[in-house]
């Protein structure tokens, strides 16, 4: 079967790849673009480990076809930091010890960024509902929610230069 050429934007940079019609965006990111931060947990839209932002919307990349990335703008976990400067969410996850094995962490960070992009001042309930599609098997959710709310507060107060 002939492959399809897809031209897209990933983390602000032009990107292109060849894919089969049935390949997922997660496959393309990991296998073709070598962006392995997005994780494959369930491949069925249940765990959120593969979360990316597509044209401003939070998406499970395991459920989106790679060909649908044509002309879209995609943000992955690799695009969250500003060069060597961690995003406040990343820093707060570290400060709050909001991860253990880390497998779910990229998905949580991307989903949390999408939340704060839409709502810079979420309540705890809003944050918990927003992140309900992201599963963590080892950390527990309290530390993750604390980290997200703390990052949100810091960002509202005005992040240090470069962040
Ligand atoms: S791998 Fe996509 S939601 Fe689990
Ligand atoms: S830190 Fe291990 S699954 Fe979340």
Keywords:
single chain, 163 residues, alpha+beta, Ubiquitin-like (UB roll), DNA polymerase, domain 1, 2 domains, five-stranded mixed beta sheet, 5 helices, 5 strands, 15% strand, globular, binds FE2/S2 (inorganic) cluster
Account of the 3D structure:
The protein has 163 residues and is of the alpha+beta class. It has two domains: 4-79, Ubiquitin-like (UB roll), CATH 3.10.20.30; 88-157, DNA polymerase, domain 1, CATH 1.10.150. It has five helices and five strands. The protein has helices at residues 25-32, 88-95, 105-118, 124-130, 141-157, and strands at residues 4-10, 13-19, 51-54, 57-60, 73-75. A five-stranded mixed β-sheet has the order 2-1-5-3-4, sandwiched between helices. Strand 1 and strand 2 (13-19) form a beta hairpin. Helix 2 (88-95) packs across helix 5. Bound molecules: FE2/S2 (inorganic) cluster (2 copies). One FE2/S2 (inorganic) cluster binds at residues 99-105, 136-139.
Brief write-up:
By secondary structure, the protein is of the alpha+beta class. It has helices at 25-32, 88-95, 105-118, 124-130, 141-157, and strands at residues 4-10, 13-19, 51-54, 57-60, 73-75.
What's the pLDDT, averaged over the residues? 96
Helix content: 25-40%
Question: What's the gyration radius in Å?
Answer: 16 Å
* Number of spatially distinct domains: 2
Main β-sheet: number of strands, strand sense, barrel status?
Answer: 5 strands, mixed
Indicate the CATH class of the largest domain.
Answer: Alpha Beta
User: Roughly how many Å apart are the termini?
Assistant: 45 Å
Task: Explain the layout of strands and helices.
Layout (H helix, E strand, L loop, with lengths): L3 E7 L2 E7 L5 H8 L18 E4 L2 E4 L12 E3 L12 H8 L9 H14 L5 H7 L10 H17 L6
Helix pairs in contact: 2-5
Bound molecules: FE2/S2 (inorganic) cluster (2 copies).
């Amino acid at each position: 079967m002939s492959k399809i050429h897809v031209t897209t934007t990933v983390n602000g940079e032009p990107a292109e790849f060849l894919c089969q019609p049935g390949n997922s965006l997660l496959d393309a990111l990991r296998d073709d673009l070598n962006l392995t931060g997005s994780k494959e947990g369930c491949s069925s839209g249940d765990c959120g480990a593969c979360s990316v932002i597509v044209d401003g919307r939070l998406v499970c990349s395991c459920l989106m076809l790679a060909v649908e990335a044509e002309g879209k703008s995609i943000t992955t976990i690799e695009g969250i930091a500003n060069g060597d400067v961690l995003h406040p969410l990343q820093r707060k996850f570290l400060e709050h010890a909001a991860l253990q094995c880390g497998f779910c962490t990229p998905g949580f960070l991307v989903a949390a960024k999408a939340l704060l992009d839409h709502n810079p001042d979420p309540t705890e309930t809003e944050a918990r509902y927003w992140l309900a599609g992201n599963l963590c098997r080892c950390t527990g959710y309290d530390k993750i929610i604390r980290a997200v709310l703390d990052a949100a507060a810091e960002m509202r107060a005005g992040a240090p230069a470069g962040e």
